[in-house]
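User: Predict Winged helix-turn-helix domain-containing protein's structure from this.
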Amino acid sequence: MSSFRKGVRPLSESSSGGKAITVTQARALHLAAQGLLQAPRRRAQRDDLLATIQRMRLLQIDSIHVVARSPYLVLHARLGDYPSSWLEEALDTGRIAECWAHEACFVTASDIGLHRAWRAQAESNHWADRHASRTRDTHLKEMHDLLARIRESGPVRASDFERADRGVSGWWEWKPEKRWLEAWFASGDLMVTRRERFQRVYDLAERVLAKLDPPFDEMAMTHSQAALRKRFILDSVRALGIAQARWIADYFRLKPSVDAGELEPLLATGELLSVRVAGWEHPAYIHADHAALLEKARDGKLRATHTALLSPFDPVVWDRARASELFDFDYTIECYVPSAKRQYGYYVLPILHRGRLIGRLDAKAHRAEGVFEVKALFLEEGIKPSERMLDELAAAIAVTAQWHGTPKIRLGRCRPAPVASALRALWRH
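Assistant:
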């Protein structure tokens, strides 16, 4: 009996020696896998939020809120208008959970066991683990006292503890109790049971795991490190839609990096397919689940029609090398860059338009005033804005502003300059 899945081409036909696809077709595959190829066709439902996180395999968390915090914005680009409270509800009811993955992330309840098993086995050099280890080395008694309090009295927030030196931030400047809570979270002894105004509420892991839906699978903890690494490699390629070997490890922060030799057994079993992309030096890999998408891409039947504003922490752009090769888009998250060295602004949202990243805008939501401020908007060099592009860009900005509860749009400078007057005219109508 063949080891290949039903409907998957034999390796000789789908390997890198077969018909190459274009970069445009590769982008369409990537966006289809990420849920960004076309705009949603109906109003979002609660289960769509879970399906979207499962499709991406994770949803990165970031607390900056000059516009909507990143996880909400990532979901908005894929779901359209949806109540942001659904994310907190999903966490509170155990449909999703928090863990360290790419960075701090939400994952579905069905995947949390894999991440806990991986972190229990793999040696980590992540900054959170390094800080947690130092904290345990110096404050283990206090940490155990805190754990005992939670066991006896229930969940806590960092804000439940007073501090004398207000106004500081960062792990090394957190109040001691916050560092202790985060250290227990990094080790897996504590988990986040819910969020209140986006603040973590910590509880014993056993109590959080007990409420998961679907129920926590204890068998996940028995997987070997090799089996878990294979699973995360396959999940990364599925989530990305198409990937070069050197892109794969970053998705779940796997170490060591993934190379072509490690992928050969997955090609042999048919779990991965290999394809050539015109102009790429290295072969690309596609999950067997996306074999039908690959055929549609080859036939030119994957049409990108969506226009959306992306979070700086969207999976599409968080790997700078991948965004550069796949979209010819050089992107840096400049909120972590000193202001004098910023090229585009503090919180810059990439603009996705019909399969391309055509520009970026620096935005801020003034919620009390109901104003969505576009401080600056930059189209990429060589982009010539058509009437349709401007119309769809104006609509995407307006939809995002409305969803923020800031329907009045204030537009600053644009590059090229005539874009500003064109957008303002569209919003007047």
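The longest helix spans residues 127-153.
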